[in-house]
Amino acid sequence: MTGAVERGRPGRTLVVRLRPNLDMVDGIEAACAGHGLRRAQVRSAVGSLVDATLAFGGGQRTVAGPGVEILTLVGEVRPGADGAPVADLRGTVGAPDASIHGGRFVRGANAICITLELVLEEWLPEDDDE
Fold first, then answer.
1. SS3 34
2. Using an 8 Å Cβ cutoff, are 119 and 43 in contact?
3. pLDDT (tens digit, 9 = 90+) per residue, 67-97?
């Protein structure tokens, strides 16, 4: 996340179901690419992960499953250097032992357990000349 203020407006809304064993970060990026969303925000999500790996404060923690529940999921997708969508996702998860953990979801380390349903809202900046 850049931290800059950006003027724009919402565009399309995409409701997505991601399948088991797909990495959550990769799956969200692929969904955006497949539907032509260059920029988007996660508006809502429900689902579970096999295990969850979260980064925070310079470290990271893996929460062992199976069946780590996604409690909150927020973030945005923006074009990377090559123009492909890059997701920055943060949230909290509930472990099977009822402990709660939070941080940034690490790419390649958050496989979906059953399914993940989410709502993505396209963002159309005013000065988007790409």
1. helix
2. yes
3. 999 999 999 999 999 999 999 999 999 999 9
